[in-house]
Amino acid sequence: MRFQHLTILSLFALLALSGCANKKGKQYAGVDGDYVNGTPLGERSEGANFLGANVQRGQYAPVQFGYDSSSVSPDQESKVAAVASALKGTGKTVIVAGFTDERGTQEYNRSLGEKRALAVREALIAKGLQANNVQTVSFGAEMPVDSASNEAAWAKNRRAEFGIVK
C-alpha cells in the first residue's frame, strides 16, 4: 500500500515537472511557454509572424518610444486611439508586443519591452477596451526592424506592435 502511494506521488511529480518546461528554452514576459493567454506564438526570427499564425500583424502603426522610456508620448497617442477605436465593442483580443533597441542587457531590455507593452495596454484600456481583451508580451531587443547600429535604427526598434487575434 505504501509503495502504491509513493509510485502515484512520483508520477504526479514527474507530470508536473514535465508540464512546466518551456519548449523553446526562453522566458518571455507575459508569455506562458509558447503562448500568450492561449494564443500560440510563432517563430522568433526576422520576418516571421512571431505572434503566431492566428494573429494578424501590421494592420496598425507601431507606437514608437524615446530612449530608455516606457511612456506613450503625446505624438504617439493617435496610434493607440486608432487601435482602440477600431476594436472597441468587437470583443477581439489585441496582443501588444514591446521591443527595445540593442543597447542594454537582455534582462534590462526584456523588462523595458514589458513596461512599454504595459503602458500601451493601459492606454488602450483608458480608451475603452476591456482589460481582458488586451494582452502583452515583451521581446526586448529581439527581432529589430532595422539591424543597423545607429540612432536612426535604434529609434525604429524602440516600439510596441499590435497583433489582433483572428
Q: Structural class of the secondary structure composition?
A: alpha+beta
CATH H-level homologous superfamily name: OmpA-like domain
* CATH architecture call: 2-Layer Sandwich
Q: The CATH topology, please?
A: 60s Ribosomal Protein L30, Chain: A
Strand content: 15-25%
H/E order of the elements?
HEEEEHEHEHE
Q: Tell me roughly what share of residues is in helical segments.
A: 25-40%
Tally of helical runs? 4
Q: How would you explain this protein's 3D organization?
A:
It is a single chain. The chain has helices at 2-19, 77-87, 106-126, 151-157; strands at residues 35-36, 39-40, 55-57, 63-64, 94-99, 134-140, 159-165. Helix 2 (77-87) crosses helix 3 (106-126). The radius of gyration is 19 Å and the shape is globular. The protein is 34% helix and 17% strand. It has one domain (26-165): 2-Layer Sandwich (60s Ribosomal Protein L30, Chain: A). It has 166 residues and is α+β, with helices and mostly antiparallel strands.
